[in-house]
Amino acid sequence: QVQLVESGGGLVQPGGSLRLSCAASGSVPSIYHMGWYRQAPGKQRDMVAVITTDGSLMYGDSVVDHVKISRENANNTVYLDMNNLTPEDTAVYFCNGGSSSPWWSPGDDWGQGTQVTVSS
After folding, report:
1. How much of the chain is helix, strand and coil, in % rounded to 5?
2. Tens-binned pLDDT, residue by residue, of the chain (120 aa)
3. What are residue 98's DSSP bridge partners?
4. What is the distance between the alpha carbons of residues 45 and 26, in angstroms, rounded to a whole number?
5. CA-CA distance, 103 to 86, in Å (whole number)?
6. Distance linking the first and last C-alpha atoms of the chain
7. Quick check: 38 and 113 in contact, CB under 8 A?
8. 2 and 69 in contact (C-beta within 8 Å)?
9. Torsion region of 57: left, alpha or beta (phi above 0 gives left; psi -120 to 50 gives alpha)
10. If you placed Cys at 34, which of 49, 73, 78, 87 could pair as Cys (CB 3.0 to 4.6 Å)?
């Protein structure tokens, strides 16, 4: 079983930047895709970005120009760097992990979520 713990959410002004982190612990498989999803009030949960163990990337269409995903395999941690944030980025951000196929589909493991609020 894998546990995912997010950190780094909070309140940021429009145009600002934020870094989210997610650490996986427990029985983490050697092949383990990790990514971020977000859910705004009243909306479905959408993929933000996914990264595989060997570094393949995929971004959601609405964020591709202002987010970057990265990971440190040695400590099973994935990061999401966000810049030029707008109120439309306000959502609960969930860390996701798994060994699903295809790799860009959601895995079975979810974090508890971290709130990101973009407001002046």
Report:
1. 5, 50, 45
2. 999 999 999 999 999 999 999 999 999 999 999 999 999 999 999 999 999 999 999 999 988 899 999 999 999 999 999 999 999 999 999 999 999 889 888 999 999 999 999 999
3. 33
4. 25
5. 29
6. 40
7. no
8. no
9. beta
10. 78
Identify whether the C-beta of residue 114 lies closer than 8 Å to the C-beta of residue 11.
Answer: no
Token reading at 8? 């780094």
The DSSP bridge pattern shows strands 46-51 and 57-59 to be antiparallel
DSSP annotation of 74: G
Which letter does DSSP use for residue 30 in this model?
Answer: S
* Burial of 6 per CB tally in 10 Å (0-12, 13-18, 19+): buried
Q: What is the DSSP string of 49-112?
A: EEE-TT--EEE-TTTTTTEEEEEEGGGTEEEEEE-S--GGG-EEEEEEEE--SSTTS--SEE--
Q: Which of 19, 16, 14, 59 shows the shortest CA–CA distance to 35?
A: 59
Cβ-based neighbours of 60, under 8 Å, separated by 6 or more = 46, 47, 48, 49
Token pair for residue 75? Answer: 């400590």
Phi, psi angles (nearest 5°) of residue 85 = -70, 145
